[in-house]
Amino acid sequence: MTLANGRHTLAIPGPSIMPDRVLQAMHRPAPNIYTGELIDMTAGLVPDLKAVARTEGHVAMYIGNGHAAWEASLVNVLNPGDKVLVPVTGMFSHGWADMAARLGIEPQLLDFGKRSPIDLDAVETTLRADKAHEIKAILAVQVDTATSVKNDIQALRQVLNAVEHPALLLVDSIACLGCDEMQMDAWGVDVVIAGSQKGLMTPPGMCFVYFNDKAAVARQKVERVSSYWDWVPRAHPEQYYQYWCGTAPTHHLYGLRTALDMMVHEEGMETIWARHAQLARAVWAAFDAWGAEGPIELNVSDPAHRSNAVTSVRIGAPFGTQLRNWLTERAGVTLGIGLGMATPDDPAADGFFRVGHMGHLNAHMLLGTLGSIEAGLQALDIPHGPGGVAAAAKMCAE
Predict the structure, then answer these.
(1) What is the maximum span of the chain, computed from C-alpha positions, in angstroms?
(2) By CB atoms within 10 Å of each CB, which of 117, 259, 303, 347 scores lowest?
(3) What are phi and psi of 72, to 5 degrees?
(4) pTM summary value
(5) Model confidence pLDDT, tens digit, residues 300-309
(6) Which pLDDT band holds residue 297 (cuts at 50, 70, 90)?
């Protein structure tokens, strides 16, 4: 018999669980795209999007996913033949670097593996060796969705400042904007990219590129940007259609408006960051207890380098896939696959899974997921220590 009836819990690192209010806001007939409330509503999104990233700079909105944001960020500040430095902490760093290469940009990779953050000393050494300043930008992923490694973006900027290197700092915050803290202006980030489907609690289909004045100056030096990817008319439209280079993503905008109301005007970003930090500590406490015996191990050992949005777990093949399948079929909970974690000994990444704890999430939702995981560990006779849920509950009660 299955106990998976009722509302399914999607505990993956995006798309995140969407608030009912967001879904209800989207459930409406198509609006007028030429005059009326949609026009005013769209302009009102801009200051609230900036509030989420803590910037007074500019933001361009696109119809697309995170990969679209990657491309938009690259083509607006770099020319073919330019060199970029890519500190790698998981598969999404590799993906951004690969996209750059396909655009004729030359990526230089510093690979720090799948369990460690950026080695700032190695970055400093590389930048100091670049006497001619051939490196035009650093492409850094704040949180890698696959490994759950979180990088210290403020410290990375401090390295750039210390060596007086003029490279732009581009940051992929797709996995964590709205969950992990982002202080774009205070940290000296030149470009931040994000998607709608994670911390912003809106369906996949929109992405955002934030940029400051330094990046805007770099845009003026780019030889060619297609009309679709050009962020200038999107960030500073003279006519409404220029926000999108065409028809607006109408229903996404209604959902996003409601999500931003909840985040910026009701809960507040500082409270959201604190909530996600406490819920993340609850997740880690559960896995620390379960990992006291048996094969369970958090992918990132140092809590300072773990994301508050997603946690990647090592459990050994074939337990990861077995547990995920049991939870989906028997408990109505879906965990994330071991994306990008395949090894020669585990080519299907059956020994890994991820828990998404982002967006519209509270204690009872998280504790229900963790309780289901504990039930699955017991049902499948996967070796583990006792008291995982109790440890999480204690953390939630603090």
Answers:
(1) 67
(2) 347
(3) -60, -40
(4) 0.97
(5) 999 999 999 9
(6) very high
